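in:
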């Protein structure tokens, strides 16, 4: 399967415009058309619905998109590893959800990079589902995820347990003494389904069915600037906002007749890499976390 065809397919799925896709690759539009036709012929499926105004993925195209991205990522990873083969003694490819990165991994990663100059380190920050797919595809070696991977051949164990707190700017005084669950829909709530798992569903389920949030974003740490500007309320991990609670730039709102869940994040690695020197050294140096030994999932 031609990798340039796959890259063109991915770009066209994002831009939804043949001319703009051609401009992105400095090629003529007919080349884009030919690449997509060649890919569709090889797959035996139509990938796009085309008309004069719109270019949209078919159901088959949408299903194939994630595979195309994974194939392209795998090729890029292979090229990168080969190019570093004689430059570094080892490579460590780490994936993490952004909240865990900000709360627990920034300093350990900095220390590791400084103390292990012979190891090439690559860090990917994304959602749990994407990271776990990359781990299974072999393009990551170690993942910190909100979702456990219960699959043969992978090691998984808890890393940290987080408490969720409802936070806002101190300029908002209405609920300083506490809030009932039936008052939540009245909030200017900033929604982020940052766990993409049980806890994200819990937050949405606290609101009426089909409730429309005034603001949504896909990464929880991106909510902080809005809160600090005095905009809205949201649930966030306590470790992420603790310093703001301590200095008074944010306040937590007591929950009167309901409780927020705890969040469990996990360390996941392939069983085949359990004795990898770079991984073991990184995990051993993590402060405040008992991460050894990793346990095999049944």
């Amino acid at each position: 399967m031609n990798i340039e065809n796959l890259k063109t397919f991915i770009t066209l799925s994002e831009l939804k415009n043949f001319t703009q896709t051609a401009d992105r690759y400095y090629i003529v539009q007919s080349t884009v058309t030919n690449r997509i036709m060649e890919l569709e012929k090889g797959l035996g499926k139509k990938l796009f619905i085309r008309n004069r105004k719109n270019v949209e993925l078919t159901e088959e195209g949408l299903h194939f998109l994630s595979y195309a991205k994974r194939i392209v990522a795998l090729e890029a990873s292979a090229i990168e590893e080969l190019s570093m083969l004689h430059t570094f003694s080892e490579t460590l490819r780490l994936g993490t959800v952004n909240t865990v990165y900000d709360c627990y991994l920034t300093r350990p990663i900095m220390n590791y990079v400084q103390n292990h100059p012979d190891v090439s380190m690559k860090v990917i920050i994304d959602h749990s589902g994407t990271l776990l797919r990359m781990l299974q595809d072999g393009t990551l070696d170690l993942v910190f995820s909100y979702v456990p991977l219960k699959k043969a051949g992978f090691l998984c164990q808890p890393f940290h347990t987080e408490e969720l707190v409802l936070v806002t700017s101190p300029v908002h005084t209405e609920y300083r003494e506490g809030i009932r669950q039936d008052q939540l829909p009245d909030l200017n709530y900033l929604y982020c389904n940052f766990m993409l798992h049980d806890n994200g569903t819990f937050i949405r389920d606290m609101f009426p069915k089909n409730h429309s949030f005034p603001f949504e974003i896909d990464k929880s740490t991106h909510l902080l600037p809005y809160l600090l500007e005095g905009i809205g309320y949201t649930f966030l991990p306590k470790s992420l906002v603790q310093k703001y609670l301590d200095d008074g730039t944010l306040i937590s709102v007591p929950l009167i007749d309901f409780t927020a869940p705890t969040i469990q994040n996990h360390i996941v690695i392939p069983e085949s890499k359990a004795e990898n020197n770079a991984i073991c050294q990184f995990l051993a140096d993590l402060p405040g976390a008992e991460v050894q030994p990793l346990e095999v999932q049944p």
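note: The first strand starts at residue 48 and ends at 50.
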